Each structure stands twice: as C-alpha cells, then as structure tokens.
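Hey, I'm writing a tutorial for new members on how sequence and structure tokens pair up, and I'd like a real worked example in the thread rather than a made-up one. If someone can provide the structure for the chain below, I'll link this post from the tutorial.
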Amino acid sequence: MKTASLRLKVTIKHTLVILERANCRLTGRRVSTVLSSPPMVRQLSFSIRGQGLHEITREIAAVVAESGVHDGLCTLFIQHTSASLVIQENADPSARQDLERWLTRLVPENDPLYTHTQEGPDDMPSHIRAALTATSLSIPILGGKLGLGTWQGIYLWEHRHFSSRRNLLVHVGA
C-alpha cells in the first residue's frame, strides 16, 4: 500500500510538471518553481492595542517570502469573531480614521436592542462589525511578492476596545 501511494504521488507530480511545461510553451512564461514548493501554513499572533485598523502587511509579506512561492495565492483567515481583515489605503491615515468613524456610526454601542452584552457595550457591535467586513482575504502572489496595489495595505481591524492577542492563519500555495 505504501509503495502504491508513493507511486501515485510521483505520477501526480509528474503529470503536473508535464501540464505546467505545456502551459509555459503556450503562454511563453517560464516553468514555475511553485510545483516544488508545498503549500505552507503559518499561524501569526498579534498583540493589538485596542480598537482600530492595524497594518500587518510587513508580517504577511515576510511569510510569503519565506515560502519561496513565486506565483500563487496567499489566503489569510482571522480566528476570531470580533475582529476582521481588510485591504485598505496605507498612505493617508485619514482614510483609516474615516472608515473607523463610519463603521462606529453604522453599528453603535449601547443599542437597547442588543441582548449579547455580557462582555461589555462593545461586545455585540464587535460581532456585527466583523460580520460586515471580512474574516478572510485572498491575495495573489506575483514574482514572489504580494500582488497589492501601490497604496494598498493589509489590516487587522480590531473591533473591541481592550487590548488583546489575535491569531491569524496564513496559507501560501500555488
């Protein structure tokens, strides 16, 4: 059984290499080194100092560089229900401030209709804000780097007031 499994893996990889080479002949691009790099998953932990947008682009770019993937996809997933992920402008801080203020007005604290308030007045609004934004992101990898635009950054958006540790899974693959 072990030998058959090994043969199957070798056959699949050999078939992928043949298909990749055929694709390169058709498209004119070089054979990617991605096939020799297995997918990589890392868990990152961030100490967050309260509510707001916290840029994490550098940390994610470091994981992508470590992976050795030339062309592929980076998928991010935050393991929490009261924080989220967004791609946003990283040049002018006023853009982040406007977003934070807008979401606070959209989902206010101390709404008398909230019943999930055991952890404080920011408890239910944090869950709603996370539901309205994103808990996962997918970013193309081109030439070994994140395919972000000139003014784009990756942000962890903390919706709670208190400081906390937030865990993020980073999957890099072809």
